Amino acid sequence: MPWYVFALVDRRPDERLGRGLSRALAARRVPGGFALVERRADVPPVELGTLTQHEAVLARVAGTVPAILPVRFGTLLEMDEIEEALDEREAEMAEAFDRVRGRVQFTWRRRRVDTRSAKAAARGTSGAISGTEYLRRVAAKPAIPAAFRAIGEKLRPLVAAERYQPGTSSMPDSLYHLVGRADANRYHAAAKPLASANPTVRMSGPFAPFAFTPDLL
To answer: What is the CATH number of the domain that holds 198?
Structure first.
């Protein structure tokens, strides 16, 4: 039976791991660290309850290890496949562990208004763009919205790393901050009035550092 992978960690947790989604959670040695896994015959369904349970497992374990790299939901592999995927990537994993060690993630979401589409609709056009224009936009580094820039500037002393993700048709603009665990309460206290002052943004966290984890598996 294959293994369902929750995360990679830099050391074996000292505490009992408890349960994963339906079976006991285990820490298996892999190249560069340990994989937090459970035996499972199939990929779990993509539904709110399962996603919430998956994140709860990560949140529980994250506080028991110095560094955790969450693995994307639905990763089901044989152990030899896990080892093969991580083989000769110890340096990359070590760098990722160093980045997130002792840190948590806060997430900001921003409701985005697509003014280009709105103007196109007002003109009675589809708002379609040429292939050349599309490639130009993809190649360009996305500009961080002013609302996020202001938030970043105010919270900069507490932020170890920042990442901006432009919105898509199904996801809003997102700003991710990597914050030391020791500074998490101070960050939350400083961020709360910033979120209250701008109804277009919403802050949540702390979480495991999803947005600062490379795609290893």
So the answer is: 3.30.70.260
Whether 17 contacts 24, CB under 8 Å = yes
Q: Look up the domain containing 64 and give its range.
A: 3-100
Q: Looking at the structure, do residues 120 and 205 belong to the same domain, yes or no?
A: yes
Let me know if residue 88 belongs to a domain: yes
Question: Is residue 217 one of the residues assigned to a domain?
Answer: no
Burial label, 53 (beta-carbon count in 10 A; 0-12, 13-18, 19+): middle
End-to-end CA, the chain = 18
pTM above 0.85, yes or no: no
pLDDT tens track of the chain, all 217 residues?
999 999 999 999 888 899 999 999 999 999 999 999 999 999 999 898 999 999 999 999 998 999 999 999 999 999 999 999 999 999 999 999 999 999 999 999 998 655 454 444 444 444 455 555 545 554 557 789 999 999 999 999 999 999 999 998 888 999 999 999 999 999 999 999 999 999 999 999 999 999 999 999 9
Number of domains forming the structure of the chain? 2
